[in-house]
């Protein structure tokens, strides 16, 4: 997924509606960039559930089992210790460390796999050059369309996004330079009216 | 969403239809009749064995009812929003407590047999038991049992009663009333189940003691009642009676709680075991020594794997907890395991050198279970299937697991 | 940084009936929305240093130097500088260790267990509580590391092949502790960092200087908020919560094993594992309340850390305090019921022996005072909860002291009976650990988002695209209320 065409929305509802509308119109390679996980987007974007749990499971089993084996080897076979008459290989006393190492292995590998799945860390990304994209981590909801999306059409898609309520539409990176001429997408007037903090209602208290 | 295949426009049924209600009560009466006949035959054959088998069966159904009561109290204590319908089903289970009080009477009759170590004359010659006589004496034992049942029946009928009242009036104040009683109720419940566990189970070996024992009994009650709850919800959902207020998300939640309490049971069981095993003090290790003799060793291992390892692995996945057959199967399995757990606690007192399963045990189980089931079935058949005017219904119906 | 939030804004909190079963009380007050929450929280990390902060830091660092001095003295002279003797071989050191580890447990409870129970109110407090966990565990680690005396041999505890062909004793609970506590520190730090990544991205996007952009940019790892990443994030968070829950239980359970696997009356009792866990959560929540009461005022976060948050925590303190009381009671009952003279002696000696003063301090601080939280008035009074939270922490320190020292000071052989008095170095080490904890916590408050910005946004009514919310405008800002920030 490469977000080549980006559109900014003011609310999660507008973003969700836009994603659904684009999907209806045949757009297939979409992504959203939001300050928090907006629920319902995964269905709208047709994203599968994360495979993360299944990917870390082998490490959980390996960490716990391996550590049990290690303890059995160290204290049961290689250097048997008789402490308080307990047998050298005594399963109950190997449980706590095995459990801890299971957790440690799962957590360490979980973090690494999580970052790998998110393709992080990434020192630079052309998306950050888009003006206003900083809002995606604060209070704006961005939609991205991959340049390879079959339905994407330069010129018409921008207008479509604007009609769906996008307050900004922009191309990223190389595509942005190529499209400098068609950058003239205007802010739709409906969005401009929704000024944050506008006094509409008294707080019920 | 995964719920899509279950979406239906039809509203939830508020009552069981007359036919199923009749069938349900019929089954309960059938179990009760068969159980009582078997128990009577068992009594004629081997009254000593039946006494212990009956105690196991009585504790099986009583812990399930108590787990139900605990669930109800905790939902009010935490002002839970997801559990409106499951709460009603747990109210049914806790409604069996008056029957359990009745079912305690045979224990009273059998008590000199079951607890003969400290009830009989031989206790007078035992120095340690003399020290405990202030607590372990028949009169105080019966008085305590009366107090426990008094507390439980009061709490169960208070919560179920207010809840039924709300079905009629829809009064929100009732929810607040129940929430106000919940904190002291939790306290009373915690103390009463602890001491009931000491009295009915721990005193089978009056020299043995373990401070965690009450928590262990509680853990078993939670696992078994949640298993029963899972079965009730699956039954109502599959019959198409409930699909909004109790749907796949609630099933998932019940599955998660069941999974959590299976781990909790293992945690408490392991804590008790490792401390006693490690310190290796004779008067304490004797408890595990008895349960390691002959084929009790097999039972112990079956408990370890059957009550923890296997259900843990099965219920780990999200898919399993949402699946009718997997969750239902796990619930039935856990109910069997809970019986085995109690069997493992009670029966080594009788069968010293190895487990001998007998048909009498079945009588000891089915008789109390059947009698309690008659009451539970009557509650399920006569009342509403969920609290139809609970203020938190919309919240409960909207529950989603990420 | 705003410290000028008018007190009057808090009034509606008390006025609203939080017990109304219909609809949940809002988690964020003052009409804060996506933008103002970001402004408020990011402003603390990116804005000017508040005037009081350097003074607080200076105080904390001077305490930290006390710790450095005490430990330096310990290493140069040996563990004899602590007041232990041959009968009482464990005292303030293990007391301090268990005390700090216990404090840490509340952070994990908030970030993991309350998450699994879908308690949305946790979002405002989990970040600071998790930070508290990590710093408390670091403070705790000081003790096991230094009580060995020759700290440069600490690696002997790990199974590293060596020329003598010897291995650690894996059957010892003290070694279990090594693995449990270091796993706990690592996993808590990872959990914390994963949660911080999106918030560091927010700071990166708002940073006004090149240095801040680079530092927060690196810390955020290039997070873009892509929904694909969010899905993995939520799953990772869930796995961490699922792992941390048994982990936190196991840590204090293993700490309790240090005592309970022995045959010492007063230590060997099976209720110890759950009792220690309940006590740990109890003390940890008390510490969270102490810190939050101060932080929400100092950092201007009263709309995010509301009275409801504090009240809920006080309820958990009440619940866990009662569980601790239950454990005390059962221990007592069983000491009598066991009919074992050693058991009953150990317990009677606690209550009426030379350390009775410590025992009664413990009981009144842990069992009696928290019971005041049954009253809503006290539960929702800032001065009362602040006082009780400190009392609870004192009480929980005494609990560990009572368990450890009173059980040891009466040996099986009366000629070995003894009495323990802490040395000056004992005291300065313990005071110094507060320096370490406070220094780290103050640095955290200044440079790291003290509230999980993304998570709090996620629990706003405006965050749910399926939820009609007419009282909010397009940005989740409640109309008609001025913003502070």
TrEMBL record, chain A:
Record keywords, A-Z: Membrane, Transmembrane, Transmembrane helix
Residue stretches spanning the membrane: 52-74, 94-117
UniProt xrefs under Pfam families: ActD (PF11821)
Disordered as annotated region, ranges: 179-205
Keyword Membrane attributed: yes
Superkingdom of the source species: Bacteria
Name of the protein in question: DUF3341 domain-containing protein
Species whose genome carries this gene: Chondromyces apiculatus DSM 436
From TrEMBL, chain B:
Key words of the record: Membrane, Transmembrane, Transmembrane helix
Keyword NAD: no
Keyword Transmembrane helix in annotation: yes
Source organism: Chondromyces apiculatus DSM 436
Origin: domain of life: Bacteria
Protein name: Quinol:cytochrome C oxidoreductase
TM region(s), chain numbering: 24-45, 51-72, 92-110, 141-160, 181-202, 208-236, 257-278, 298-317, 324-345, 357-381
Automatic annotation (TrEMBL), chain C:
Cellular compartment(s): Cell membrane
Entries under InterPro entries matching the protein: NrfD-like
Pfam families: NrfD (PF03916)
GO CC terms of this entry: plasma membrane
Entry keyword annotation includes Cell membrane: yes
Tree of life domain: Bacteria
UniProt KW Cell membrane keyword: yes
Keywords from the UniProt entry: Cell membrane, Membrane, Transmembrane, Transmembrane helix
Ranges that cross the membrane: 55-74, 94-117, 129-158, 178-197, 236-255, 275-295, 316-337, 357-375, 382-408, 428-448
Bilayer topology term: Multi-pass membrane protein
Membership in a protein family: Belongs to the NrfD family.
Protein name: Molybdopterin oxidoreductase
Organism: Chondromyces apiculatus DSM 436
Lineage: Bacteria, Pseudomonadati, Myxococcota, Polyangia, Polyangiales
């Amino acid at each position: 997924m490469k977000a080549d065409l980006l559109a900014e929305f003011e609310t999660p509802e507008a973003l969700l509606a836009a994603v659904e509308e684009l999907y209806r119109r045949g757009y297939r390679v979409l992504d959203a960039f939001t300050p928090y996980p907006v629920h319902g987007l995964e269905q709208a974007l047709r994203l599968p559930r994360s495979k993360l749990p299944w990917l870390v499971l082998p490490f959980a089993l390996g960490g716990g089992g391996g550590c049990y084996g290690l303890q059995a080897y160290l204290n049961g076979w290689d250097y048997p210790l008789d402490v308080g008459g307990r047998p050298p290989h005594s399963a109950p006393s190997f449980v706590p460390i095995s459990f801890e190492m299971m957790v440690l292995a799962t957590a360490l590998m979980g973090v690494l796999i999580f970052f790998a799945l998110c393709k992080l860390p990434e020192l630079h990304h052309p998306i950050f050059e888009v003006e206003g994209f900083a809002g995606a981590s604060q209070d704006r909801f961005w939609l991205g369309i991959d340049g390879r999306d079959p339905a994407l059409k330069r010129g018409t898609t921008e207008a479509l996004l604007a009609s769906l309520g996008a307050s900004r539409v922009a191309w990223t990176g190389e595509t942005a330079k190529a499209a400098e001429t068609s950058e003239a997408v205007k802010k739709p007037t409906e969005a401009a009216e929704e000024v944050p903090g506008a006094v509409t209602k008294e707080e019920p208290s | 969403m995964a719920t899509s295949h279950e979406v239906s426009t039809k509203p939830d049924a508020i009552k069981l239809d007359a036919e199923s209600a009749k069938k349900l009560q019929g089954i309960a009466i059938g179990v009760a009749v068969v159980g009582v006949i078997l128990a009577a035959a068992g009594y004629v054959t081997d009254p000593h064995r039946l006494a212990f088998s009956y105690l196991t069966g009585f504790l099986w159904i009583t812990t399930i009812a108590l787990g139900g009561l605990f669930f109800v109290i905790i939902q009010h204590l935490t002002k839970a929003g997801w559990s409106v319908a499951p709460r009603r089903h747990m109210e049914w289970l806790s409604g069996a407590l008056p029957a359990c009080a009745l079912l305690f009477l045979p224990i009273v009759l059998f008590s000199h047999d079951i607890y003969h170590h400290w009830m009989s004359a031989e206790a007078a010659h035992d120095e340690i038991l003399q020290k405990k006589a202030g607590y372990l004496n028949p009169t105080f034992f019966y008085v305590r049992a009366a107090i426990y049942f008094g507390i439980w029946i009061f709490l169960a009928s208070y919560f179920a009663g207010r809840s039924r009242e709300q079905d009629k009036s829809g009064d929100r104040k009732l929810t607040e009333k129940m929430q106000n009683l919940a904190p002291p109720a939790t306290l009373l419940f915690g103390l009463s189940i602890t001491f009931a566990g000491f009295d009915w189970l721990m005193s089978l070996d009056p020299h043995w003691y373990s401070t965690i024992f009450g928590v262990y009994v509680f853990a078993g009650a939670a696992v078994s009642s949640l298993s029963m709850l899972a079965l009730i919800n699956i039954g109502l959902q599959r019959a198409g009676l409930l699909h909004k207020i109790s749907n796949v998300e609630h099933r998932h939640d019940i599955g998660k709680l069941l999974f959590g309490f299976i781990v909790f049971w293992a945690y408490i069981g392991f804590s008790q075991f490792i401390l006693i095993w490690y310190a290796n003090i004779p008067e304490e290790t004797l408890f595990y020594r008895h349960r390691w003799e002959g084929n009790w060793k097999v039972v112990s291992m079956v408990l370890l794997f059957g009550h923890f390892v296997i259900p843990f692995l099965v219920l780990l996945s999200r898919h399993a907890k949402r699946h009718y057959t997997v969750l239902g199967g796990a619930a039935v399995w856990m109910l069997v395991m809970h019986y085995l757990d109690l069997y493992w606690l009670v029966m080594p007192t009788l069968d010293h050198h190895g487990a001998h399963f007998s048909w009498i045990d079945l009588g000891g189980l089915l008789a109390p279970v059947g009698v309690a089931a008659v009451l539970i079935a009557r509650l399920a058949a006569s009342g509403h299937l969920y609290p139809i005017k609970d203020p938190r219904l919309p919240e409960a119906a909207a529950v989603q697991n990420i | 940084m705003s410290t000028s939030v008018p007190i009057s804004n808090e009034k509606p909190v008390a006025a609203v009936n939080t017990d109304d079963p219909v609809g949940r009380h809002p988690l964020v007050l003052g009409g804060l929305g996506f933008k103002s929450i970001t402004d408020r929280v990011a402003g603390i990390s990116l804005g000017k240093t508040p005037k009081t902060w350097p003074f607080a830091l200076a105080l904390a660092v001077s305490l930290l130097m006390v710790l450095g001095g005490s430990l330096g003295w310990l290493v140069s002279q040996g563990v004899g500088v602590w007041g232990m003797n041959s009968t009482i071989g464990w005292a303030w050191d293990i007391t301090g260790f268990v005390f700090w580890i216990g404090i840490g447990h509340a952070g994990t409870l908030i970030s993991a267990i309350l998450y699994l129970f879908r308690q949305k109110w946790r979002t405002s407090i989990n970040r600071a509580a998790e930070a508290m966990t990590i710093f408390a565990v670091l403070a705790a680690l000081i003790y096991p590391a230094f009580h060995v005396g020759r700290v440069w041999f600490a690696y002997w505890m790990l199974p590293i092949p060596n020329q003598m062909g010897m291995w650690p004793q894996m059957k010892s609970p003290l070694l279990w502790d090594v693995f449990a506590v270091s796993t706990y520190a690592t996993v808590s730090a990872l959990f914390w960092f994963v949660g911080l990544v999106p918030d560091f991205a927010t700071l990166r996007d708002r940073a006004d200087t090149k240095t801040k952009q680079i530092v927060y940019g690196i810390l955020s790892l290039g997070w873009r908020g892509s929904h694909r990443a969010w899905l993995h994030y939520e799953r990772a968070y869930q796995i961490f919560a699922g792992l941390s829950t048994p982990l936190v239980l196991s840590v204090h359970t293993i700490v309790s094993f240090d005592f309970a696997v022995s045959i010492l009356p007063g230590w060997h009792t099976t209720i110890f594992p759950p009792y220690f866990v309940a006590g740990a959560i109890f003390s940890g929540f008390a510490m969270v309340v102490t810190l939050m009461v101060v932080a929400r005022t100092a950092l201007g976060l009263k709309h995010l850390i509301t009275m409801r948050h504090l009240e809920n925590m006080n309820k958990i303190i009440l619940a866990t305090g009662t569980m601790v009381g239950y454990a005390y009671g059962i221990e007592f009952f069983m000491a009598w019921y066991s009919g074992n003279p050693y058991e009953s002696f150990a317990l009677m000696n606690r209550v009426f022996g030379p350390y009775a003063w410590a025992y009664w301090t413990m009981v009144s601080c842990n069992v009696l005072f928290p019971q005041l939280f049954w009253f809503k008035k006290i539960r929702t009074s800032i001065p009362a909860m602040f006082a009780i939270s400190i009392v609870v922490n004192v009480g929980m320190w005494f609990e560990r002291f009572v368990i450890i020292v009173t059980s040891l000071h009466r040996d099986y052989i009366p000629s070995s009976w003894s009495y323990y008095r802490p040395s000056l170095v004992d005291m300065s080490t313990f005071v110094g650990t507060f320096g370490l904890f406070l220094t780290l916590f103050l640095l955290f408050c200044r440079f790291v988002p003290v509230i999980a910005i993304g998570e709090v946004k996620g629990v706003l009514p405006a965050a749910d695209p399926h939820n009609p919310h007419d009282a909010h405008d397009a940005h989740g800002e409640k109309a008609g209320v001025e913003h502070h920030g």
